[in-house]
Amino acid sequence: MASQKETFMAKWTEPLTNELVSLLVAEVKKGNHTTCTYNKTGWNNIHTKFNKRTGLHFSIVQLKNKVNKLKRHYGSFKKLLSQSGFGWDNVNNTVAVTDQSVWETHIKNNSEWAKFKNDGFPQYLDLCIELDENPIDDGAFTPNVTITLDRQKRKLDRTPNSKRRRKSNTYDVSNACKAIHKMIKFKTRAVVAILNGMPNLEQDLYNKAVNQSCLNATWREAFIISLPDRRRGLLESL
Predict the structure, then answer these.
(1) What angle do CA 87, 84, 103 make, to 5 degrees?
(2) Per-residue pLDDT tens over the stretch 128-139
(3) Distance between CA atoms of residues 8 and 231, nearest Å
(4) What is the pLDDT of residue 161?
(5) What pLDDT digit, counting tens, does each position of 182-194 carry?
(6) Residue 196's Cα: distance from chain center in Å?
(7) 16 and 120 share one domain
């Protein structure tokens, strides 16, 4: 039994934060998340499973405080990604920039963004699910894609440079995200089509594969390009 002092002091490490976020996402999928927060069942599940998996004795209040802090970081990080010259690095789960010099100006205007330059925000995509933001998955938004789309836009835009420069300052990455999200949906459907064509596939493996396909871009790609006789092994490793 933890002492009152041990229970009160919550020290959050990266693995503990990731564990909490995974439980948040799980409760969203179960339907235990309302417009603003989780219902009583959701919080009880998160509280019980978190302490059981970690061997700690955090209170629900401590977990809620951490979630509120993550939400604030999420809002700040999302705003950063909307700035001109910034994108999402799907490999390192961090911010990617077309030119490192853009950091200096933006950090001066918002000191909170400084932590994202070094640490990124690994939980960003999972929190998209928790906050019902239609996430683009962990292989979706890369700086190369953003640059390519921006260049294509300029090729089609024949307005004078001065006017086009003003437009670029307000360029919204949401259109790029939407286009890539459609591509991800298509690839997920491809995985499901392959699964449907596999004879005698157990329902449990089918469910795990569909879930993994939605959450993990790397696994999804590997499954699609694997030889037919190798796919069963990938499924059994889940």
Answers:
(1) 75
(2) 777 754 433 333
(3) 47
(4) 52
(5) 556 667 777 887 8
(6) 27
(7) yes
Name the amino acid, one letter, at 36.
C
Residue 176, pLDDT score = 47
Query: Cα dihedral angle (91, 94, 100, 101), rounded to 10 degrees?
Result: 160
The residue from 84, 112, 135 where one domain ends is 135
Say whether both 24 and 123 belong to one domain: yes
Are the C-beta atoms of residues 224 and 231 closer than 8 Å to each other? no
Interatomic CA distance for residues 54 and 194, integer angstroms = 37
The answer to whether 173 and 87 are in contact (CB under 8 A) is yes
Count of domains for the chain: 2
For residue 97, the SS3 value is strand
Tens of pLDDT, residues 82-94? 888 887 766 666 7
Q: Model pTM greater than 0.85?
A: no
The DSSP call for residue 19 is: H
Question: Domain of 60?
Answer: 4-135
